[in-house]
Specification:
This protein is an alpha/beta fold. 33% of the residues lie in helices and 20% in strands. Pathway: Cell wall biogenesis; peptidoglycan biosynthesis.
Length: 448
């Protein structure tokens, strides 16, 4: 397996031992790079810290003393740790670089790197690009925010094997030299304000994906997103747009019936099984990347005619007495839920709620043309209720948890309805992750 070579740092602090921290620590250990671990979980409950401690690695657990920075010339932090954390603040004062583990992964990559980000659609697009390259026989690797820790995955990379990597704003905020050969900018809207504290910081973090790119690299971008297009005007990088709003002779576009690339017909949209106009954007972005890597139309047609999406993203669960249940647990912000609502043209019973991310829910209620009723739960439920009152929506019911919300939605539905879990909130008030939340929903639906 690959290790770090000619690594320019003498002592590293691994801050946080979640999946990415564990992978970073193992890589540093295997690469003979001196490092120290600092993790919030107490040592007697921390199996990962105990493991590295047995290997002779210094571990500090249960608290975050500033002394862990002594002699450190690089901090590798868990992406979820905010930049106002006391260790991060002190490291910045000391001019110690702060990165996430994707920076370590980048140091080992030998071959094409395709990196995807955006407020919504990252996982679907990343997975679809992976499937297209795989079907074309290019043996890609799948890594990043999609659940496969990048610094672990790329250790197995063969020479010139493509790496397809999903990246969040949390990961991108802390990079130094990271530079993809192909970047994909799907969209940028207001999100994660509890972490970034301002829209400007969030946008800046997303744009870090193209920060180091040159005119030898390519950015595939959403030509319909004004925030994205404005930021690309003066960037010295090759640009390829995708658009669903008008037909274009360059890049990937849609004429109302078919997908084209550089004025060449690729596929009729009737044969694309992935639902929703927002998913059409993801498809166009994926087609643009595939064509850049010389994937034939026949291969694209084969994949798009069978690719139904990813778990927790508008995932069909079950037809129960004429009610169609969909799991969209990955919709952790209002825009994602808005796009989910726009994917259906029949009555919807919507389940929303979870951890309040600092958003105003007024925009959500403006999209309720097909929503028959709505069930809210969790920390954000009171704020959702207040927005419903402002918009004079009287079909809202508030319950305490997702299980009760699912049962209540079923009770309120009639035959022909869509029952949609699309929370518009993070999961962390009651769940470890959006995956746990979606799995709970699926389990409850099957038991109804």
């Amino acid at each position: 397996m690959k290790t770090l070579r000619d690594f320019p740092y003498n002592k590293v602090l691994v801050l946080g031992l979640a999946k990415s921290g564990e992978a970073a620590a193992q890589l540093l250990y295997d690469s003979d790079v001196p490092f120290i671990i600092n993790d919030q979980q107490p040592f007697d409950q921390n199996e990962k810290a105990q493991y590295f401690n047995r290997l002779g690695v210094e571990t500090v657990t249960g608290h975050h003393p500033l002394e862990v920075l002594e002699g450190v010339d690089l901090v590798v932090k868990n992406p979820g740790i905010p930049h106002h954390h006391n260790i991060i603040q002190e490291a910045e004062k000391l001019n110690v670089p702060i990165v996430t583990e994707v920076e370590l992964a980048y140091e080992m990559i030998d071959g094409p790197l395709i990196a995807i980000t955006g407020t919504n659609g990252k996982t679907t697009t990343t997975t679809l690009i992976y499937e297209l390259l795989k079907e074309a026989g290019q043996e890609p690797l799948l890594a990043g925010n999609i659940g496969q820790v990048a610094s672990e995955v790329v250790r197995k990379q063969k020479d010139q094997q493509p790496v397809v990597m999903e990246l969040s704003s949390f990961q991108l905020k802390a990079i130094q030299n990271f530079k993809p050969d192909v970047s994909v900018l799907l969209n940028i809207t207001e999100a994660h304000l509890d972490y970034h504290k301002s829209r400007e910081d969030y946008v800046s973090s997303k744009l870090n994906i193209i920060k180091r790119q040159t005119n030898e690299d390519l950015v595939v971008y959403n030509g319909d997103d004004s925030t994205v297009t404005e930021q690309l005007d003066d960037r010295a990088v090759q640009k390829m747009a995708f658009t669903i709003n008008h037909f274009s002779r360059r890049g990937a576009s849609f004429d109302g019936q078919s997908i084209y690339f550089n004025n060449e017909w690729v596929i009729n949209c009737e044969n694309v099984v992935l639902p929703g106009m927002h998913n059409l954007e993801n498809v166009l972005a994926s087609v643009a990347v595939a064509k850049h890597f010389s994937v034939k139309n026949e291969v694209i047609q084969t994949v798009l005619s069978r690719f139904i999406g990813v778990k927790h993203r508008l995932q069909f669960v079950e037809n129960k007495k004429g009610r169609l249940f969909y799991n969209d647990s990955k919709a952790t912000n209002i825009l994602a839920t808005t796009k989910a609502l726009q994917s259906f043209n029949r009555p919807i019973v919507l389940i929303v709620g979870g951890l309040d991310r600092g958003n105003d829910f007024d925009e959500l209620f403006k999209q309720f043309s097909h929503v028959r009723s709505c069930v809210a739960y969790g920390e954000a439920s009171e704020k959702i209720k207040q927005a419903a009152e402002r918009h004079q929506f009287d079909g809202l019911c508030v319950v305490d948890n997702l299980e009760h919300a699912t049962q209540k939605a079923y009770e309120q539905s009639i035959e022909g309805d869509i029952i949609l879990l699309s929370p518009a909130c993070a999961s962390w008030d009651q769940f470890k992750s959006f995956e746990d939340r979606g799995d709970m929903f699926i389990e409850v639906v099957h038991k109804l």
